[in-house]
Design goal:
Helix content is about 45%, strand content about 10%. With about 240 residues, the protein is α+β, with helices and mostly antiparallel strands. Pfam families: Nitroreductase (PF00881).
C-alpha cells in the first residue's frame, strides 16, 4: 500500500486540539494550495475559502454551535462557501443575463466544487501530521454567518474545517459494508441485513458521542419535519426562487 492510500484509509476526525499550537503560515499555505487544486466543473471553482483565525469570530461561531467547541480551540478554522457571486461579476462584465435561480444546478456545482476542495484540505492536513474535523452544522446559522462575514449576494456557507494538533487519539471509524456501497456495472440490490450488520459494528465500535443506532439516527433525521433554513438562505441570497 502506498503512502497516499495508507493516509486516506486511516483518516479520522479529531475534535480535541492543543490550544497552544500555532499553525505555521507555510503549513496553512500548503493546505490552501492543495485545496485550490481540487477538481472543478469546467474549472469554474465555484467556492471561496475564508480563513478564520480571529478569536472573537470563532467564539461567536461556537456560541451559535456549542457542540463544536473545537472551532475555537483548533489552530485555524476554514469556512468553505459556495460562491456564485464571482461569476455574477463575470456576467455583468460581459453584459449577459445571469439566470442563476432558474435551476438547482448552479447550487449543486458550487456545493460539489467546495466539497472537493474541502477533501483536498483534509488530506493535506493529515499529510502534515495534523488533524481536522469537518463541520456541516454551520448551515443551521448560515444567515447569521453570512452577515457576520459580510458575504455578498449569491454566496452561501456550506461547511467548515477545524485544523490543529490533536491531543486525543481517535480510532478509525468503520464504514458501511462494501456490498452496500460499491456496485459494478449496474446497481445491485442487497439484503437489509447489511445495514443491521453495520448497526452492530458501530455499537461495538462504541463511539461515545453516538446515542442512537446508526439506522435509528437516520430514520429519525429524515422522519422529522424538514428544516428549511438553508432554503430560506438560498432564496435570500438570490439563488432560489
Amino acid at each position: 500500500m502506498n503512502k497516499t492510500i495508507e493516509l486516506l484509509s486511516n483518516r479520522r476526525s479529531y475534535r480535541d486540539f492543543d490550544e497552544n499550537h500555532v499553525l505555521s503560515q507555510e503549513s496553512l499555505q500548503a493546505i490552501l494550495d492543495a485545496a485550490r487544486q481540487a477538481p472543478s466543473w469546467m474549472n469554474g471553482q465555484f467556492y471561496t475559502i475564508i480563513v478564520i483565525r480571529n478569536r472573537e469570530i470563532r467564539e461567536q461561531l461556537v456560541e451559535w454551535n456549542p457542540g463544536n467547541a473545537h472551532m475555537k480551540k483548533s489552530s485555524v478554522f476554514l469556512l468553505f462557501v459556495g460562491d456564485l457571486h464571482r461569476t455574477k461579476l463575470v456576467s455583468e462584465t460581459y453584459g449577459s443575463s445571469y439566470q442563476i435561480d432558474d435551476s438547482i444546478e448552479p447550487i449543486i456545482l458550487a456545493t460539489t466544487d467546495a466539497a472537493l476542495a474541502l477533501e483536498n484540505a483534509v488530506v493535506a492536513t493529515e499529510s502534515l501530521g495534523l488533524g481536522s474535523v469537518v463541520v456541516g452544522s454551520i448551515r443551521k446559522h448560515g444567515k447569521e454567518i453570512g452577515e457576520l462575514l459580510e458575504l455578498p449576494e449569491h454566496m452561501f456557507p456550506l461547511f467548515g474545517l477545524s485544523i490543529g494538533r490533536p491531543i486525543v487519539e481517535m480510532k478509525v471509524k468503520p464504514r458501511l459494508p462494501e456490498a452496500a456501497v460499491i456496485h459494478y456495472d449496474t446497481y445491485h440490490p442487497y439484503s437489509y441485513s447489511l445495514i443491521e450488520q453495520y448497526d452492530q459494528t458501530m455499537e461495538l465500535f462504541g463511539e461515545a458521542r453516538e446515542t442512537k443506532r446508526w439506522s435509528q439516527k437516520f430514520s429519525d433525521y429524515f422522519g422529522a419535519e424538514s428544516q428549511t433554513l438553508t432554503d430560506q438562505l438560498l432564496k435570500m441570497q438570490g439563488l432560489l426562487k
